[in-house]
Amino acid sequence: MNLKDIKNDWIKEFSQPMMIAGPCSAESEAQMLETARRIRETHANVPIFRAGIWKPRTKPNGFEGVGVIGLNWLKKVKEEYGFKTATEVANAHHVDAALEADVDILWIGARSTVNPFTVQEIAEALKGTSKTVLVKNPVNPDLALWIGALERLLGQNINNLGVIHRGFSTYQKTKYRNNPNWQIALDFKSEFPDIPMLIDPSHICGNRTGLAAITQEALNVGYQGAIIETHSNPDEAWSDAAQQITPEVLAELILNLKVRNSGLAGFEGEMGRHRTLISDIDFQLIELLSQRMKISEKIGTLKKENDIAIFQPERWRTITEYAVQKATETGMSRDFIEKIFKAIHEESIDVQNGIMINR
Asked: Is the keyword Transferase in the record (predicted)?
């Protein structure tokens, strides 16, 4: 059996979009129960309550989760409010403890997915389980690692699988905590359309303001649900406070979501997929242009310090010839490429002129 053969009927148990919500970290029994109660009282369609029990942190000496005691709080949430429960596991010990506590859905985090040895350990500890196991994309943009993690789980007869798109780390400073890189996630979805995919807007955005837009964008291209960090008092959260929302805000967000029923096979879904990819590429173009202009600023400073003229004809001819060559290689219009490079060059001259005049 391979990944394309598994049925993944587990997703049919839930209405779509399938929503998973709860705090980034379990902090206390009171915090867990209050968050669960308020989610339930909003009547939002949230069947699954999540909480981080163990928290992998970038640096030592930070809050790394309450540990096993938090699983008892998850059990109380299930008993008192009827939620199914979900948590992250990062090693065999976590798996054993979560299974003993009868957690319904387990997920493998981005930092674990990137390490095949860790995934193999988790897979062997889960061998043959009927629990649903979700795999977040690895922190770095590597589709093969993502697929490989699922194959390791399938190799241990784990058949109820899904994935979570939580964005990818980058050293560049952008408006996202983790860049969506929609292309990678949609390549996965295109290759494995029967594996349910959820969006994790909390980790993509890193703040509260973009959650609704990212979630809707994911639903537009056929994702089946979302996992959103929700806390009874987000501003006082012990971890990732900026990206958590209250149960009431969550309910409003869910109410305003629109599910695209046609999926990728239909016109609307396919159109949405293309538009999402265009938006992603446009964002990358803007980021690259911004970087280019910053380099132009440095060149402008050097020219000023050394009394060098801004416009260098030889350099412009080299850039133009290269652009024409690339247009030919890619089959794009020569005129179009020349217009783009002319506009970029003119902006670069303006940037350098500003430095010459103002410094």
From this structure: yes
| Distance from C-alpha of 20 to C-alpha of 274, rounded to nearest angstrom | 27
Q: Which CATH number fits domain 9-259: 3.40.50.720, 3.40.190.150, 3.10.20.600, 3.20.20.70?
A: 3.20.20.70
Q: In this structure, are residues 167 and 204 in contact, taking their beta carbons and an 8 Å threshold?
A: yes
Q: From residue 130, how far is each of 10, 71, 96, 157, 179 by CA, in Å?
A: 10, 19, 14, 9, 33
CATH code, 269-358: 1.20.59.10
At 34 the three-state DSSP class reads helix
Put simply, whether the predicted model's pTM sits higher than 0.85 gets the answer no
- CA-to-CA distance for 183 and 284, rounded, in angstroms? 12
Contact 87, 55 (CB under 8 A): no
